[in-house]
Specification:
The protein is of the alpha+beta class. The chain has a single domain, classed as TATA-Binding Protein (2-Layer Sandwich), CATH 3.30.310. It has two helices and four strands; from the N terminus they run βαβββα. Strands 1-4-3-2 form a four-stranded antiparallel beta sheet, with no helix packed on it. It is globular and about 35 Å long.
Length: about 80
Amino acid sequence: MKQLIYQSVNLAQWKALSSMLERIFSLSIKTPNGSSRQWDFGFEWHYDELAQSFSLKCIKKPRWVPEALFESQIEALIRKVLSCE
């Protein structure tokens, strides 16, 4: 899956994004940079508070889930969180 990059992400939005990813995928996101795997899902992320940028890359997903569908769902979840903050 391609790396998803978002600009103008403030600290409150980063906290909301990390909470959402933890809740939906049962990941452990305790630092602004890292990776985590749980069940059939794995992600790498990077949040730069000074640049206010956030990037996310799926590094593992179930084979039976089409990549385009999974990517569009992740993007929709992220856009929803960013528009609410």
